[in-house]
TrEMBL record:
Record site: Stabilizes the basic form of H active site to accept a proton: D92
Source organism (scientific name): Candidatus Egerieimonas intestinavium
Complex and partners: Monomer.
Alphabetical keyword list: Cytoplasm, Hydrolase, RNA-binding, tRNA-binding
Annotated protein name in UniProt: Peptidyl-tRNA hydrolase
Encoding gene per record: pth
Length: 193
């Protein structure tokens, strides 16, 4: 069984903001695979179902981004998930252009507070992840203001394509393995305008 967690912030005011790429990817998977809503458990909204023949739990932590690890720790413990092989975390990344994705098997937080909290809570940085690009913050912008802002029209199409590719990468990670997903999705992508 896989736990697929998308990071973001709960609440209408955060919908469609740059920091909610993980939530949007989970929503895409829920719709594409008709995953039924399971309710709330361990500070996260979740659903259970099958994706490409694999049993999955899709989760959106309700702890707000910077405390994402609290929700994931509870779900990992409750469902007896091995975080190093059965957890996939999807989140935003300012170092990638809008719509680009990057698959990794492990790594540091890279300045991302949600990932920093997950590493602290799980006691490992060896977990699968898919990063969805949101683009660099403009000069003189505060980082928090940037990641909590919506995308402009010109970026939204590229981001929607990135969310779709992130969902596909999650499926490949489960069915063919993370190396296959990295080979397929970590190539330099041209972003449609």
């Amino acid at each position: 069984m896989y736990l697929i967690a998308g990071l973001g912030n709960p609440g209408r005011q955060y919908e469609k903001t740059k920091h909610n790429m993980g939530f949007e990817t989970i929503d895409y998977l829920i719709d594409a695979y008709h995953i039924s809503y399971g309710g709330t458990r361990n500070k996260a909204m979740y659903g259970k179902g099958l994706i490409e023949g694999q049993k999955v739990i899709l989760a959106k932590p309700l702890t707000y981004m910077n405390l994402s690890g609290e929700a994931l720790r509870g779900l990992v413990d409750y469902y007896k998930i091995d975080p190093e092989t059965e957890l996939i975390v999807v989140y935003d990344d300012i170092s990638l252009a809008p719509g680009q994705i990057r698959v990794r098997k492990k790594g540091s937080a890279g300045g991302h507070n949600g990932i920093k909290n997950i590493i602290a809570q799980l006691g490992t940085q060896n977990f699968l992840r898919v990063r969805v690009g949101i683009g660099e913050k403009p000069p003189k912008w505060d980082l928090a203001d940037y990641v909590l802002a919506p995308f402009g029209k010109e970026e939204r199409a590229a981001v929607d394509e990135g969310i779709k590719r992130a969902a596909e990468a999650v499926c490949v990670m489960m069915t063919e393995g993370p190396d296959a997903a990295m080979n397929r999705y970590n190539q330099k992508q041209t972003v449609k305008e």
